[in-house]
Design goal:
binds flavin-adenine dinucleotide; oxidoreductase; FAD-bd_PCMH; 23% strand; alpha+beta; 6-stranded antiparallel β-sheet; 8-stranded antiparallel β-sheet; 492 residues; Oxid_FAD_bind_N; EC 1.5.99.12
């Protein structure tokens, strides 16, 4: 181990010490993340594990130390508020395990994939598609890790039908905060299984997830429909998510285009289409987009199905656009859009900040929420994407740690801002105003990817029953509160 490390690291078992890196360059990256807005001290060292056993050994050392030190797994560092930091402790560079053996295995006969917690979804998708299979539910962006996503929930446009990604998990290997390696499932150590899913890295490090698969149609018809009226958008979305499997679309999302925001996606729209849409946008202060998709093998059947569904929707006549793409192209669409956005930005990428706010808003208050939020945002004039789409609560497992509003249908509202070093604080202030609005108006929204700093806020977030259960699980599986300290749940 390199010189200059804290004294507590001197007592670490030699086989682990050789895998700890503490020079400035090694640790600096672990004090930054996708958000780019939180400054924290770097970890004292970074573990580059060669196997899950190394992680278990590290956590056992942390427990035995005179002054136990904190440990945080870092997936792909795509948190926005420092949730994977371990200031003064040890960060686990999960990416190291990606180079170790074959850690994505598909069983086509039993319809599941076993994927290491460190794996990126893009690699999991490529492997499952080789077997003609895919998962039921997907996040929008595939450059996230299995462990980092399942520690939250994993939401996207298939949740209304199949639940978040955590709902498709069959089994997990977890290294607890005591350094024990435990295999868990709904039948085996179910408390740990349910606790870890959506558990914000608090109970253990996920080193393997078994996730159910299904045969995948080769093609996707991908549609974008424009609305000038919020209520028409949401009533169409709610109608679509009420349809049974196979009858409706396989994917339903939506976007709010604020302040005459222009469409700029050459991968989807032709130049003429974009011009026509942007003329419409110029007339209205806010426009709305319904994004839907059908997965299919036979063109004639999909034509009929889409035609029938479109007749029942109230988008602006003439403003429905569609494209047939491969399954892979569809699931990887956000990466393609991101790359286009980055290449057309004049700002140095290292100076970009992402002060995001993700909320689950009950259906009964979505109209009030929209009015309040649009008013606040008009004064700020932010840049970025606002996603808005409904989900069915009965597709979420109440026993898992993840928290959703207490209403049968709720909306995922995602303010995905892009800002500069100079103006991210204005956007964060706008986010806080939106939260304040919800609080004052009694909109019982729940934050997704929450980043509270006080225990009182976390208790309110979880509610009495879940909080009590989560505390008991923490006491059992990470009694010294060593794991993922910068979630600030048990460490403030
Ligand atoms: P990290 O940021 O590295 O870690 C997140 C937390 O999980 C930390 O507390 C960390 O300690 C813990 N952790 C990491 N690995 C493990 C592990 N193996 N076991 C236990 N705990 C672990 N979310 C969605 O639901 N749907 C989306 O469509 C979506 N799209 C996104 C697009 C972008 C561009 C970005 C930046 C984020 C997006 N997110 C989305 C949010 C994303 O799911 C979370 O930020 C997630 O935590 C990021 O995964 P990561 O691998 O980078 O985790």
């Amino acid at each position: 181990m390199a010189a200059g490390t804290s004294s507590w690291l001197d007592n670490i078992a030699p086989e682990i010490a050789s895998k700890l890196h503490s020079d400035g360059e090694a640790v600096a990256r672990f004090a930054t993340d996708y958000g780019g807005i939180i400054s924290a001290a770097p970890p004292a060292a970074v573990l580059r594990p060669s196997s899950p056993e190394d992680i278990a050994a590290l956590i056992r050392c942390a427990n035995r130390a005179d002054s136990p030190f904190s440990v945080a797994a870092r997936g792909n560092g795509h948190s926005t508020h420092g949730q994977a930091f371990a200031p003064g402790g040890v960060a686990i560079d999960m990416a190291e395990l990606r180079g170790v053996g074959k850690r994505i295995r598909v069983s086509a006969e039993e319809s599941y994939v076993d994927a290491g917690g460190e794996q990126l979804w893009i690699d999991v998708l490529e492997e499952t598609l080789r077997h003609g299979m895919s998962m039921r539910s997907w996040v929008d962006y595939l450059y996230l890790t299995v462990g980092g996503t399942l520690s939250n929930a994993g939401v996207g446009g298939m949740v209304f039908q199949h639940g978040p990604m955590v709902s498709s998990v069959l089994e997990l290997d977890v290294i607890t905060g005591k350094g024990e390696m435990v295999t868990c499932s709904p039948e085996l150590h179910s408390d740990l299984f349910n606790g870890v899913l959506g558990g914000l890295g608090q109970l253990g490090v996920i080193t393997r997830a078994r996730i159910s698969l299904r045969p995948t149609p080769a093609k996707v018809r991908w549609l974008r429909l424009f609305y000038t009226d919020f209520d028409s958008l949401t009533s169409d979305q709610e109608f679509l998510i009420s349809l049974r499997d196979k009858i409706g679309f396989d994917y339903v999302e939506g976007q709010v285009l604020l302040n005459h925001q222009q469409v700029d996606d050459p991968n989807f729209f032709s130049i003429e289409e974009a011009e026509r849409i942007n003329q419409l946008t110029a007339e209205f202060n806010a426009m709305y987009l319904l994004e839907v998709a059908v997965f299919f093998d036979s063109t004639s059947l999909v034509d009929q199905k889409v035609e029938g569904l479109l007749q029942r929707l109230s988008f602006v006549p003439g403003f429905a656009f569609s494209k047939d793409v491969s399954h892979f192209e569809f699931l990887n669409r956000v990466y393609t859009e991101e790359e286009h956005r980055k290449s057309s930005m004049a700002v140095d990428p290292s100076k970009i900040r992402h002060p995001w706010l993700n909320l689950f808003v009950p259906k009964s208050r979505i109209r009030d929420f929209q009015t309040g939020a649009e008013g606040i945002l008009q004064n700020i004039n932010p840049t970025g994407v606002v996603l808005l789409y409904p989900m069915n609560r009965n597709r979420w497992n109440e026993n898992m740690t993840v928290v959703v509003p207490d209403e049968e249908v709720f909306y995922s509202v995602e303010f995905l801002w892009t800002s500069t070093e100079e103006d991210w604080k204005n956007l964060e202030a706008g986010n806080n105003e939106i939260l304040g609005f919800c609080h004052r108006q009694g909109v019982q929204a729940k934050q997704y990817l929450a980043h509270y700093k006080s225990r009182t806020d976390w208790m309110e977030h979880f509610g009495e029953v879940k909080w009590k259960r989560f505390m008991q699980l923490k006491q059992t599986y990470d009694p010294k509160a060593l794991l993922s300290p910068e979630q600030h749940i048990f460490t403030n």
